[in-house]
Every structure is written in structure tokens, then in C-alpha cells.
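User: Sorry, what's this?
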Amino acid sequence: MASALRDWLDKPNTGRGISLATDDGGWDHRDYGRLASAARRTAGALIEAGVRPGDVVCVVLPTDFTCVETYFGVWAAGATVCLVTPPLFQDGDDYVAHVAAILRQARPALTVASADLAPLAARAMADAGLPGEPWLPRQAETEADVQPAGELAILQFTSGSSGAPRGVMVTWDNLEANCELIARTAGYQDGDVVASWLPLYHDMGLIGCFLTPISLQGDLRLLRPDHFIRDPARWIRCFATAAHTAAPPFAYAYCARRVKPEQLEGLDLSGWKMALIGAEPIDPHSLEVFAELLEPFGFRREAFKPAYGMAETTLLVTMDHPWRLPLAVRPDPASLAFGRPVEILEQHELGESSRGAKSGWIVGCGTPEEDVPVWIVDDDGNELAEGLLGEIVVGGPSACPGYYAGAEGKSTRFADGKVFTGDAGFFHEGRLFVLGRMGDSIKVRGRSVYVEDLEARIAEVTRLGKGRITVTAVPGAGQKGLALFAETNDAAWAPDVREMLRRRVGEDVEVTIIVGSGLIQRTSSGKPRRRYMWEQFQAGRMPAARRVE
């Protein structure tokens, strides 16, 4: 079951390995033989600490070789890995609360933390009611045999800001199937080099750019996210030898703003095979300005591989993998209603006409593979034909079985071996186009911000009760949007709410504020009918509603 992903621990290729970026601009390389030995000694220490096959081990470590060795040490011990993000921009209390929420659900047999993060991890353990102290990474004198594995390979917590994070159960079968799908659709060949700066606690960085190349014992060049932010040209320079990478759309636009051509002098990027784009709706402008920067150095637009995926499907669902230019379309916003045909006003392949094409444009994310079926369904779960807007549903061996410990999803749900994603999309010319979340959350820099969190903050700003406020994520083409429904006729608070939302979700999110009496409609269980309310407002069926400009 776990053999294809752990084989290298018994049969390491000492001619290849992982190179980690150092803070002084260099690289620290370790071959797979050295890494496998360290991982198996770490497994020995974990087993001595009481870790057994099937246990969950939470790991709170920065991206370094200790993290790599500990990760695979947990796997060698037969346990399930749950990577927890190190603190980024949160203050200590917020970070501790977030980690405690993860630990409360994961109930790990052991929580591993580095010496500098151990005090925060200890506070989180106490808040979660877990006994003991964080376990500092260490290695036994001898290498342990690789132990039989339990059912779960990974407990992948969704990258949200909600106070109640949910752990996706990723089985060994899920992970093996998705890694094979990634390698196949990426056109990965033996000897190809992968380069990434994505954080390992996020599914795209962990599975797409870390576990897949390591399971194939390919050379991997790994930077930390802060390395990329400080010097994005350093990432690009990797592709003088590397062939594959992945990043969200904002990263390509960031490179186009920050990198100067003179920083790339003498670089040959003609061997760059794949630049995957995912994690957010994709606008063609970000890709075009990146391509224009790198085209003089041999980069080709066909290397762009727009993709769609999520943690609940292990990672990848579709990738536009044929060697062709990405296709961008501009739908008529007025036609974006569930179960209705999407009217395409314009379309073009990526090129000069894509410059400036941001709001209203989206890029196709490829055609489903036979082993990963994708359907578009209406509110009743009936399959819709090409060209009709609905919810994206995913099946196949990469579809995960559910959330850990009985946690409940929000829009995303699991039924009959399928994942009902909670994302809105449609097929056009055989390609999947994704508009984004349908109601309960919005993607911001690769993280899900949940509307319940925003509602609580808005209630404070407006001094209205939470029952009088409903926020919904608004599916749009190439643009993120939020609609706020408030049962009041007084909107003097609107400027303060807009400023708060600007700080929380960014300036590129369009905010629509709607006030009036009797606006909020609920299900029989009392939950707000978020998307239905937006569609009713758009159709002019809310006579008491007034848009606040």
C-alpha cells in the first residue's frame, strides 16, 4: 500500500537528492542515501518514544533538513504525518489558538517541534488538553526497519483561517494515485529536476513539489517562502537546470513586478517543461506579464499548466497538460447562474491580448483524465451538460474518504466515493473553468477565509447582531467577490466595514453591501441560504434590498 512512496528509504539513490537554499544565497545538498539513513534513525527515536503504526504525529518545524528527516522518519515508523505551519504573520496568541485547534482534532501520539517553536507548541498542547511536552527532533543510534503503515498517510489540515480547521484524511492509496497522476500529467521523466519555494504544510507544496519528486528519487531544489519573497529571481534561476514547478497566480505576477531582466542575464530557460498554476482562480494577465519577462531567455508560454485541485481530492484534479497555449475566456456576468448556460463574450489563447485581461477573465484548467472523473451538477446533484454552470464534483482514487474525527465540512462534502467540492465551474471546449467558492469561503493568497469569521468581525464593526448579517462568496470570472447582506436601513458603518475587509481579504476583492428589511433567508435548519440570496438579488427578486455604493 505504501511501498511506492516509501521504497526509497530501503533503496536510496545516492546519486540524487535534495538541495535546500541557504540564507547566504547558496545551496546545501544531501543525497537520498544520507537522508534515508537519517530518517530511519529518526524513526528509531520515534519508536522509542512510543510511536506505533497508525498513530498521528504532528510536526511543527521550519523547512530544513530536520523537517525532511522527521517527516520520513514518521512514515518509516508507520505513523501518519500531520504537518503544522510554523508561525508566519500571526501574533503568538492567534498562532497558539490555531495550532491548538488542530491538535484538539488530531489528538496526536506525539507533537514534534523545534527548540525555538517548542514554547508555542507547548502552549498549544496545553490549550488542547494534551499531556506532556513537545518532542524535540532527535535520532537513535541505529536505523530502524521501515514499519508496516496504517491506513492514513497524511492528515492534511485545510489552509483556512477558521477557528475550527478540518483535517482531510489522505490514505496511502489516495496519495499514491495522486502522485502518479501528477507525474504523468506533468510529463515528468527520470532525471528531471523540480524546484519549489512553496510551504510544505500546504497541499500543493507538500504533495506536488515535495512528495512526488522524492518518491521518484528525483533531484529537488527547495527554497523557503521567505527566500522567494526576498529574491524571486533566485527561484527563476533554478530553471537553468530544473524543469518543473508550481505556484499560485500571484507569484507569477510578483516575479513580473520585482525581477529585472539584468538579474537573469545569461540564463537559458528553454528546458523549462512545466510551470503549474493553481490554488486560486487564474487571471491571464499574471501569466502574460511573467511570460513577457522570461521569453527573451527561452521560456515558452506552452510551459504554463493551469490546474485545479484541493486537499479533499488529495491535490490534483485536472491540469491542462498538452503542449498548448492556455485558453482564457470572458463570461457574461449576467449569465452566471446555477444550471444556466454560461455565455462567453470573448476568448483568446494566452498572448499579447492577455495583457490587462484581469477582472472578468478566467483560464481553463484542462480536461479530466479517465481515472479522475469530473462532473458539473445542479443543486439537486443532477449532472449538467457542457456550458452549464454548477458545482464541481470529483471521483476516482484520489477522492479522500472524509474529514478526521467526524469533523464536518462547510461547502465541501463527501458522498458515495465522490467529493462535492463547493466550487462553481463549467466545461467549455472540453476544458474545466473554475469560478471559485460558491458561498462559504474565499481564497486569499492560497488560504481559505471563511465567511463566518468575517461575519463575526462585521458584527463588531456594525454593532448589528450576527443574526442580522450574512456574507457570501460571490463566484465571478477572474475576480474574487464578497456580498454582505445586512438587515438594516442604516449603512453609516459601510466605509468602516469596507476598510476592515480590505485589510482582511485584500484590495482585489470586490465587496457588495446590500441593506434592507427581511433580506436573510434560511434553510429549515436555520442556516443562511447564501448563494440563493445572491442569485435572488441579481435577478431583481429582492424589492426591499438596496445596494450601498
About this structure: The mean pLDDT is 89. The chain is about 30% helix and 25% strand. The radius of gyration is 23 Å. The longest helix spans residues 32-48.
